[in-house]
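We treat protein structure as text, and this decision shapes the records that our systems exchange. This encoding replaces a full spatial description with a residue-level series of whole-number codes. Below, we set out a record of this kind in full and without editing:
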Amino acid sequence: MLQKLKTQINESPMTRAQYFAVAICFLMNILDGMDVLIISYCAPVISKSWNLQPEALGIVFSGGLIGMAVGALFLAPFADTIGRKKVIIISSVLMGISMLLTAYSQNITSLVAFRFLSGIGIGSMLASTAALTSEFTPNKSKDFWVSFVISGYPVGAVISGYIAVIIIPYAGWQSMFVIAGLSSLVTVPLIYFFLFESIEFYLKKQPINALKKVNKILIKMNLTVLKKMPETTPQAADAPLKKLLSNKYKTSTLQLWTALFFSFSCLYFLISWIPKLVTNAGLSIELGIYAGTVFNIGAFFGIVLQGYFSSKFGLKKTISTFFLLTAVLMLIFKIFIGTDLLLIVFGFLGFFIQGGFVGLYAVATRVYPAEFRTTGVGWAIGAGRFGGIIGPLAGGVLVGLGFSISINFMIFAWPALMAALFTYFISSKEVS
């Protein structure tokens, strides 16, 4: 029965309900991007106001990333038990409240604590929206739609960058967190009333009134309704790691985790430190914010085009090429310093690193079955985020030692190269 439904979804055109669900997931990732990148745009002002050293800023950046790892590892897997939609709502509430509290931080301790809490919601949101999108979109365009939904992340970063340039000089950095917090809370009714749950989740878990709920969704998608629910076989409640590291998935899981580890370390070094590194080079705070904004504009186009290219040429070949080109750009970055091409290069860096990085989300949704798909995506992101924690911390140490922006980029080109290699050799037969 499930296979028959999948065939219907794969062979039917996308309906208005599916497009609207994609739009909601896209919006949630816009808010994710705002919540993550706000601290980078505010960092130069906070650093000056509180007289913080680069190493201290590295701890602030990594506090949010640790929270994202916790959210992906431990909150996101609940989506396989209670549903994707419920976890998305919980994540949105957590993001909104913690961002509002961040505006009232008086010292670095409270700032790190609130960034950690918001990170939990962000990490869970990314995994849950990616898994849900993969389950209500046709197989032939699934990679594109998963990538498109995650592309909301850099869109949010761009929006927050433009707002930061206008708001921070007049209303202070605290106002940015108030805006982001209220924006997250406002979306909760939208999710509750208009985002539908995964059909695969209902068929596998069969909660109360599952048949009625499934048929309501099927009608919205112009598909044939069910007369009864399929029979299910009880499954042992294995620990997440036992499922992900079983004989069938072990090699692919470790390859995916390693690729994400290296890509996270490179990406989060860049998004955390670009504004600060630019200002350290003697340029204005405004130009530092614009550099980060251009990076994320490039990221949006890179993610969308990566989704398109992956559908045409395969995920592994496309993603590994994107990572390889990232490494090349970072190795030769020195020749662009002081030229009119500098901002354009930041745009291409965002294009390639973010495009490749988000492609790994699509890989994760294909590697694992519906029964533990969000767990698989969450643990892949969580494992990768350890690289995201190390990247900004290492960047703080290197900046504190006085290393130039070009030397920093040369060092972090190597994680991008390693991500390319591990992605290319992912062994899952489900991944093209």
